[in-house]
Amino acid sequence: MPQMSRQDPLIENHTVDYVPPAERHGKARDLFTLWFSTNIAPLPIVTGAMVAQVFHLNLMWGLLAIALGHMLGGVVIALASAQGPRMGIPQMVQSRGQFGRYGALLIVFFAALIYIGFFISNIVLAGKSIVGIVPSVPVPASILIGALSATAIGVIGYRFIHSLNRIGTWVMGSALLAGFIYIFAHDLPADFFTRGGFNAAGWLATVSLGVIWQISFSPYTSDYSRYLPADIGITRPFIATYLGATLGTILSFAFGLVAALATPEGTEAMVAVKQATGWLGPILMVLFLLNIISHNALNLYGAVLSIITSIQTFASQWTPSIKVRVVLSGVVLTGCCVVALGASADFISQFIGLILALLLVLVPWASINLIDFYIIKRGAYDIASIFRADGGVYGRFNLHAIVAYFIGIIVQLPFANTSLYVGPWANLVEGADLSWLVGLVVTCPLYYCLATRPHTQKVRAARLGYSD
Prior knowledge:
Layout: H1 29-38, H2 42-53, H3 59-81, H4 84-87, H5 91-94, H6 96-99, H7 105-133, H8 139-156, H9 158-185, H10 200-215, H11 235-261, H12 269-277, H13 280-313, H14 322-341, H15 347-376, H16 383-386, H17 399-410, H18 435-451, H19 454-464
Helix pairs in contact: 1-9, 1-11, 2-11, 3-10, 3-11, 7-8, 7-13, 7-14, 7-15, 8-13, 8-14, 9-11, 9-13, 11-12, 12-13, 13-14, 15-17, 15-18, 17-18
């Protein structure tokens, strides 16, 4: 990415508006460093430890399931990311081209809720990490430090986020590699390679977890590729995002699995990391803390863009300024801190359960988004219509997308296996939530059929003649 010139503002000056070609910059490799560094963090490591501790897989079967799940799910996040250079707008704004101007509001609401949920969870986690490193710092102060640091990064915006993650790729990647070397260079438990085994339920649950993990990022991936030059194409952003997202998460999940197997059975995941890595453990804890803060900036950034998108839906002539984004960031920060400071001891697990349940609404959206962009419209959207008060060629509501979306949610419910709701067929494969697969299989062909009906084509053709 080119160095920031004197004319480049320190704080990003775009919000949800279109990024014109003259302001495009960066390389596809920036997407690799962003998604690689973002995924080397405590949460994926803790989740990777579950492969041995909860799903009872051994090293070989665990690694195979981890790799397969993330490689499959990575296709979704990479295809979403590759849309950014072509569109030049945030992912949620782009949804107006599929659901209509007002039809997209429900998707934007769910996306904002997910961002805010992860932001709160991460500032609680950051606060606990600070206390773990410096016990003399009170928990409330630790939470505020983590929240303010992430907010500062999110307010500065796109360039700074990418810059931090370019550095983070080398630092976090090297630290994780050093951790692996340390563990395997020391004596391993006698049952390291044999603890656990193969069971179909645990294996499928691990694969599903990897797929869901990747899909959860898809609502905001193009937010971080929209500044790339339009002529960069589809292939390079796809490959860079795919490799970054999958390699980062596979390594983190694998590290959690290895640390769990290298310590006595039943050891808590992050305690296992400390024990297994010896003198390197405290250093890793500090680096993980910094990565939590950096990653959490993405959640705040996405939440603010989603809120602005919602407001701008009802005020089509309004172009939000830098000041608006800064003020909204402060409002979100204040509200999240109030919730985090009053959070119970098991808040993170409860909130993550809620967020994972909300993924039921992301799978149909991702299905419609990808089918519409790559197969139906093939990347040809009318950007001006996306910002028109009446939706232009896309209208206020696209009933075909809305119907397909809700049916995609409904068909998942019988198979859902979440902390909030368990469907009657949730245990077809014990412990594995396969609702995402049903959602994909039903929504993709349903939306394609509805969107390509002869009547639909006539309506689209009439709208293409839309004039002021």
